[in-house]
Amino acid sequence: MKRFFLGFALVSLVLAGVVSYFASADPDGLDYVTEEHGIAEHARDHPLGGGPLADYAVGGDDRLTGVAGVVGVLVVLSVAFGLFRLLRKRTPKA
User: Fold this and answer.
1) Is the dihedral of CA 36, 39, 40, 41 positive or negative?
2) Any idea what DSSP says for residue 33?
3) Contacts within 8 Å (CB) and 24+ apart, 48-57
4) What is the pTM of this model?
5) What is the pLDDT of residues 15-52, one digit of tens each?
6) Phi, psi of 61 (to 5 degrees)
7) Cα(62)–Cα(57) distance, rounded to whole angstroms?
8) What is the pLDDT of residue 24?
9) Which of 13, 14, 60, 74 is surrounded by the fewest CB atoms within 10 Å?
């Protein structure tokens, strides 16, 4: 099980750090539909929209998309690992 999670983390980091540079700059399907049907006119900026990792960049620098992805993956994995450790079922010691 430990090998699975290490492999999962490694694949996630590679995808975030390398493959994210090849992602399309065009809006994704959800953005396209909201713009096409006028829903986007009612959208508001997210409260964290000005954050250091907003818009898949670091400090607004689009050249650092992979770095933003790696930092995001590390944050998510750290939070998930912490929650799993807190919630894991403890077996009583004999």
Assistant:
1) positive
2) H
3) 56/20, 56/23
4) 0.70
5) 999 998 887 777 678 888 999 999 989 988 888 888 88
6) -85, 105
7) 5
8) 73
9) 60
